[in-house]
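Protocol step 4 of 6: structure prediction from sequence.
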Amino acid sequence: MAEEVAPTTELRKWYAHDPRRWKSFKSKYMKELEANRAVANLLQVIRSTDTVTLVYATNDVKHNNAEVLREFLKRKFKIE
């Protein structure tokens, strides 16, 4: 399921973990998430658990897809 909500290969390659592209990456990935049908399944799974762990494969703890997904999920669940 996680692979289904990850950024597209095209977007990941374009971003290439370049912090100068962070703002654009974040915006583009949010748009991908809004249009992604797999997000509904993810939301259903999240609702059935108390703990959610997001992982990422970069050393940059502030500029990664998990941070964008976390923000997206917080908006969907209206949590702080």
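Step 5 (inspection) to follow. Residues 22-35 form the longest helix (14 residues).
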